[in-house]
Design brief:
This protein is α+β, with helices and mostly antiparallel strands. It has a two-stranded parallel ribbon with strand order 1-2. 30% of the residues lie in helices and 14% in strands. It has helices at 13-21, 68-71, 73-85, and strands at 29-34, 56-61.
């Protein structure tokens, strides 16, 4: 269902209406992503600021895949610390 290609189960219609109504996140959000992530493409997280009313900071780490915390721990830690200090 994630990509909207499966038919929705009508059993969950009420829950789906609640989810659809809450289309923004009010908590400041940091998105750290690998630029070479083949699972969640970096382009899919671009331009999502409108969904984050509390702020959206996005860091794409070049040459890093799906696991930035394992593949680039120093850059990931720096991004997190900078975000928390701001």
């Amino acid at each position: 269902m994630r990509w909207g290609e499966a038919n929705k189960d009508p059993h969950y219609a009420d829950l789906d209406r609640l989810v659809t109504a809450a289309q923004s996140i009010s908590t400041p959000t940091l998105m750290i992503q690998g630029g070479s992530d083949a699972v969640t493409l970096a382009a899919t997280t671009e331009g999502k600021d409108q969904y984050f009313t509390g702020g959206y900071t996005r860091h794409v780490l070049p040459g890093v895949g799906h696991f930035p915390t394992r593949e680039a721990p120093e850059a990931t830690n720096k991004s997190v610390l900078d975000f928390l200090r701001a």
